[in-house]
Design goal:
alpha/beta; eight-stranded mixed sheet; 587 residues; elongated; disordered N terminus; five-stranded antiparallel sheet; 24 helices; 14% strand
Length: 587
């Protein structure tokens, strides 16, 4: 028996409609209106879907470009330093945005393939291009090196991304906007969204960096290249195989055991070895051994946090290779009334480095609190530089910590050591009158503070900081780490960069040092030679332009910020004389 044909059941409205077709003019017009409304609804749905796709594509292109711009900056910092990397970064971005936005039609005509098809290919080759360009960092110099590197890596990617964005937004329907606004809305809106993502993503990148291999500098670049591939699948991606092969097996900047082993093979041939490395909140942190001269150092990006001799046996404490950290220990030698015995004294050390000064304070039996912002620096100091465990550690930025503890720690410390990582330019908030006044608040009436500031005597910032310190602590003596260079040397190099150590008290009496006893040296050759500061600095040594500049306050930080670039370039040059170039550029 053949199957019965199924017929759909009719609803009441359908039945009524079939029974009563439109007979009057009014019925016919009503039916036409219903059909028109249905067509209108379908048209709006299609329009909304199409426009949604347009804006999602545009948002994805902008977001990827903004994140990559930040990752590019992070990748430059181990070779050039954070400040040198940012000097011309925005100019590279602005130029790329301008050319890409205005040249999208030209690119569509000139290129043999769609513009968007090139994005994954360019993104894949950036890590490889950076690797080879970093080898020429000494030739390029810190002044132009970052811009040259980004001009050959980030710039092409930003131009193509912006051109693709312009292509996508040509399908955006802005007919409901006034003509005076519709013409500029896509460009202005895109730029505003770009800046928003750029700012927000940098905070997230820094907070998450180093937690996995894909959250490192090169790892992020590979992740972003994959994201571009998802957006624009193309047969051209087969040409990216050499770049991916290089990243996997030859790029020593990738934080994998294989890359680290490969880097060590290169370094061993030159008498160095990489002990450990990790990317962290303040930068790229690594510990290196020099086997020829027998010392170990810790670096953060393009600056040194400290070092110690490995060729001399550690007795009570290690032998530091930089005398400035030993001279800071002279804070104990300042003569003050009613001095507290070391066994009862309390010290605050802001900024850790490898832990030279706090290790000595602890060895003298002083109850020491260490405030360090970077957890990796703290871990490496304990693991590779023998930082003792009998201390109080605060892994937090010093400003928020001091503000939260200002009432609990009033006149609490006998000694305060202020030794923050500068990296070529001062962390401005830690040298303001307000922050230093907070430290004064924590210092006992007969307490002593030692402040280390790395700066250039030929530039105003050093003088401004000294003005600020003396405003808060009127009784001070100022020393530099080493002998001042000759006038000819300053004229030749254009700088006089050195560590400046300031010892201050609250008593109002002249700062004097007692003669060191044998126990003060901690059985250390370096301390026997450098514990007492020798090179006192007269106020006339500071830049004359700083005399009228006043002091540094929270709302006047531009006084120092405007000198960051010049100071950082000088610091970069100094670092290249302290450690060989191949160490900096190979990470």
């Amino acid at each position: 028996m053949p199957p019965r044909k199924q017929t759909p059941k009719r609803g009441p409205a359908q039945a009524e409609s079939s029974k009563k077709p439109p007979e009057t003019k009014e019925d016919f017009e009503e039916e036409l209106k219903i059909l028109a409304d249905q067509a209108k609804e379908e048209t709006f749905s299609n329009w909304a879907t199409q426009q949604g796709i347009v804006y999602v594509k545009a948002a994805a292109l902008i977001a990827l470009m903004a994140v990559y711009a930040n990752v590019s900056l992070l990748t430059l910092s181990p070779v050039y330093g954070q400040i040198a990397a940012t000097r011309l970064h925005q100019r590279v971005i602005w130029t790329a945005l301008f050319i890409g936005w205005g040249g999208n039609v030209f690119l569509n005509r000139a290129l043999p393939v769609k513009t968007i098809a090139l994005l994954p290919l360019v993104a894949a080759y950036i890590p490889m291009a950076q690797y080879f360009l970093f080898l020429f960092s000494e030739t390029f110099g810190a002044k132009l090196g970052p811009a040259i590197t980004e001009a050959l890596t980030l710039f092409p990617l930003a131009v193509l991304s912006t051109a693709c964005l312009a292509d996508v937004l040509e399908d955006a329907d802005l007919s409901k906007l006034p003509k005076s606004i519709a013409g500029s809305a896509p460009g202005l809106g895109s730029y505003a969204f770009f800046k928003l993502i750029e700012g927000q993503s940098m905070h997230q990148l820094i907070a998450q960096i180093g937690k996995s291999v894909f959250q490192t500098r090169i790892g992020l670049e590979l992740v972003l290249a994959s994201a571009y591939n998802v957006m624009a699948r193309s047969k051209l991606l087969v040409w990216a195989i050499p770049a991916l092969f290089h990243a996997a097996f030859y790029n020593t900047h990738l934080m994998t055991p294989m890359a680290t082993s490969s880097l060590n093979s290169t370094l061993h041939a030159r008498g160095w070895s990489l002990v450990d490395r990790q990317e962290s909140t303040t930068g790229y942190i690594s510990v290196l051994n020099n086997h020829q001269d027998g010392f170990r150092v810790m670096r953060c990006d393009h600056s040194l946090l400290g070092g110690e001799w490995t060729k001399f046996p550690r007795k009570i404490v290690a032998e530091p290779i930089y005398s400035v950290f030993t001279q800071l220990e002279a804070v104990r030698l300042v003569e003050i009334p009613n001095k507290t015995p070391d066994s009862e004294a309390k010290a605050l050390n802001i900024g850790l480095g490898i832990g030279t000064t706090p290790s000595a304070l602890i060895a003298h039996g002083i109850d020491t609190t260490i405030v360090e912002i970077d957890p990796v620096v703290y871990d490496f100091a304990k693991k590779y530089f023998g930082l003792p465990s009998n201390h109080t550690a605060v892994i937090q930025d010093a400003i928020s910590w001091s503000q939260s503890k200002k009432d609990d720690l009033r006149e609490h410390y006998d000694y305060i050591v202020h030794d923050v990582f500068t990296g070529g330019a001062e962390p401005i908030p830690l040298f303001t009158e307000e922050f230093l006044a907070g430290l004064r608040h924590m210092l006992k009436p007969n307490g002593v503070i030692a402040i280390n500031y790395a700066g250039d005597f030929t530039l105003p910032p050093l003088g401004i900081v000294m003005n600020t310190i003396k405003e808060v602590f009127p009784t001070c003596r100022i020393f530099r780490e080493g002998e001042p260079p000759s006038a000819e040397t300053i004229e030749e190099t254009g700088r006089d960069f050195d560590n400046v150590i300031v010892f201050c008290t609250k008593t109002g009496e002249k700062v004097t040092f007692r003669k060191p006893a044998e126990a003060d040296y901690l059985d250390s050759l370096a301390r026997r030679a450098y514990l007492l500061p020798k090179h006192e600095v007269d106020e006339s040594a500071f830049s004359a332009t700083a005399v009228d500049a006043g002091i540094l306050r929270v709302n006047e930080t531009e006084k120092l910020a405007k000198w960051h670039d010049q100071s950082a370039l000088g610091h970069w040059a100094v670092m290249r004389t302290v450690i060989p170039s191949y160490i900096w550029q190979n990470w």
